[in-house]
Amino acid sequence: MTDRVIVINPNSTEVVTEAMDRALDPLRLEGGPEIESVTNPDGPPGIENQQHVDQVSAHICRIIQARDNDAGAFVIACFSDPGMFAAREVTRKPVFGIAESGILSALSLGSRFGVIAILDKSIPRHIRYIRSLGLESRLAGDMAIGLGVTELADEDRTFARMTKVGETLRDEKGADVLVMGCAGMARYREPLEEKLGIAVVDPAQAAVSMAIPAIRLGQTNSVRRAVS
Q1: Are strands 34-39 and 199-201 parallel, antiparallel or unpaired?
Q2: SS in 3 state form for 65-134?
Q3: What angle do CA 89, 93, 95 make, to 5 degrees?
Q4: What's the rounded Cα separation, in Å, for the pair 224 and 91?
Q5: pLDDT tens for each residue of 132-168
Q6: Global pTM?
Q7: Hey, what domains does the chain have and what are their CATH numbers?
Q8: d(Cα 15, Cα 9) in Å, to the nearest integer?
Q9: Angle 150-50-179 (CA atoms, 0-180°, nearest 5)?
Q10: 178: helix, coil or strand?
Q11: pLDDT in tens, 43-100
Q12: CA-CA distance, 64 to 71, in Å (whole number)?
């Protein structure tokens, strides 16, 4: 199995890929798997509705099939985990979605998690997914900052809104750990955690943290074996 984690940004915004990739630097350890972040050139600027999710699912499968011989594991870096189940049918390599990984990581750090979403219209999609995982009872709340993916580069405005939403989730909803609901938020994890005084999970970091030992242990994708 190749010693490389390929992290796929399903949208076409290179700035998001670059910011996410920088946040993965602490996981680039000597002797560890290479971490490569790639952008979906055919995707929309941001994955902001169900139509976008459905649109990029086929793109993700094509990218994975094209890079299957280069990777030991794949990460789908969008909080909707688009195409994750289909992707697990086209490769024997482990495929991690950042939403699933981020939520599971949050549950190891606290009792009730809150999600910081980008837009209000993202929330029903998040709730459907969390319900499908059987984890709705552990969800304290899901609240939006009201900024699209491409607007997250405005650092002062984004951090101010993330702080306000994080305080509400902590103080009014009872969240003791937060999950950032977009890979484009990666740069804000450390300052937000320091500001709020509770754990904050970057879901892309969480997914890559799961992918690395999967490669080291030589784990494969049981879904692909089942459908072969």
Answers
A1: unpaired
A2: HHHHHHCCEEEECCCCCCCHHHHCCCCCCCEEEHHHHHHHHHHCCCCCEEEEECCHHHHHHHHHHHHHCC
A3: 70
A4: 6
A5: 999 999 999 999 999 988 888 899 999 999 999 999 9
A6: 0.93
A7: 4-97+205-227 (3.40.50.12500), 100-203 (3.40.50.12500)
A8: 10
A9: 60
A10: strand
A11: 999 888 889 989 999 999 999 999 999 999 999 999 989 999 999 999 999 999 999 9
A12: 9
SS3 content of the chain, % helix, strand, coil (to 5): 55, 15, 30
Residue type, 71: A
Q: How far apart are CA 223 and CA 18, in angstroms?
A: 31
Contact 180, 145 (CB under 8 A): no
User: Token pair of 103, please?
Assistant: 């939520």
Tell me the DSSP string of 118-176: SSGGGHHHHHHHHHHTT-GGGEEEEEE-S--GGGGG-HHHHHHHHHHHHHHHHHTS--S
Distance set, CA 202 to CA 2, 22, 58, 59, 110 (Å): 25, 12, 25, 24, 15
